[in-house]
Amino acid sequence: MDWASLLVECKENVRRQITPLLKGVSSKGPNLGVGAGGDPIKQADLAAEKAIIDTLTSHDVSFILISEESGIRQYGENPKRNYVTVDPIDGTTNLTRGIPFYATSIAVSSKPTMNSVHTALVADLFHETTYTAEKGKGAHRNGERIFPSNETSLEDAVIGLDLNTYKVNEIAPKVTKLIGQTKHIRHLGANALELCYVADGTTDAFIDIRGKLRATDTAAAWLIIKEAGGKITHPDGTQLNSKLDPKERVNFVASGNAKLHKTILNLIRA
Ligand SMILES: [Mg+2]
């Protein structure tokens, strides 16, 4: 089974399906999606998910789908060997507001666990930038091999940090020291894509310790970071692995290199 090509075909169908919805968004102004009839947020997510399922079933692929939208569902006659974990649209709020940073994320694994993901794709649907990885074959952006940054200075590093949580009083103290020593903190609003930015050295690190991000949303980017040569671990430095289940949540620190990774872990532990 050529999963790498299948995922590219899925991504192209996702783009085709959501393009008409995007036109609706831009013509009706930035507030569409908040309480608007027909819920375009759900529409985009569901259209993207359907595009992925339709692509795979049109090739008679048997698989178990693990998705935020429809939970766990089986397709085909012999699905047990292929788990397809999707976040149909990562960064839905960006999409509905016209902020050009959102992606589709698809990971294929032999078991429902992060460390058995063998083929992954995260596609920036606005900029037509596609990140892919296959286990043991490196990571690529639009077909070209990518590597993370070797920036080790906290002061010069560009660091992504997601603080979107009602538990901010709990989380903020853990990152105060880090923020104090960093000049360039970012959060762009699509975590899978932000992890890919670490994989190709666009940024130097990305941190999400809210206890809120779905493991399913991280599955593809996890392999892309690993294959690019970056680091991704739990905040305590242990290996990040997780069940792939829509209910499962993850905390992690991802960095371009071991030295910067260690510096960040020390600061958020302290
Ligand atoms: Mg999503």
Write the layout of secondary structure elements.
Layout: H1 3-27, H2 40-58, E1 63-67, E2 71-75, E3 83-90, H3 92-97, E4 103-109, E5 117-124, E6 129-134, E7 139-141, E8 144-145, E9 158-161, H4 168-180, E10 184-186, H5 191-199, E11 205-214, H6 215-228, E12 231-233, E13 249-255, H7 258-269
Parallel strand pairs: 1-3, 9-10, 9-11
Antiparallel strand pairs: 1-2, 3-4, 4-5, 5-6, 6-7, 7-8, 11-13, 12-13
Output the keywords.
270 residues, alpha+beta, D-Maltodextrin-Binding Protein, domain 2, 8-stranded mixed β-sheet, 5-stranded mixed β-sheet, binds magnesium ion
Describe the overall structure.
It is a single chain. 45% of the residues are buried. The chain contains 7 helices and 13 strands. The strands form 2 sheets. An 8-stranded mixed sheet has the order 2-1-3-4-5-6-7-8, sandwiched between helices. A 5-stranded mixed sheet has the order 10-9-11-13-12, with helices on both faces. The protein has 2 domains: 143 residues, Fructose-1,6-Bisphosphatase, Chain A, domain 1 (2-Layer Sandwich); 112 residues, D-Maltodextrin-Binding Protein, domain 2, CATH 3.40.190. About 4% of the residues have low confidence. β9, α4 and β10 form a beta-alpha-beta unit. The longest helix has 25 residues. α1 runs antiparallel to α2, α4 crosses α7 and α5 packs parallel to α6. The protein has 270 residues and is α+β, with helices and mostly antiparallel strands. The radius of gyration is 18 Å and the shape is globular. The site of magnesium ion has 6 residues, from β3.
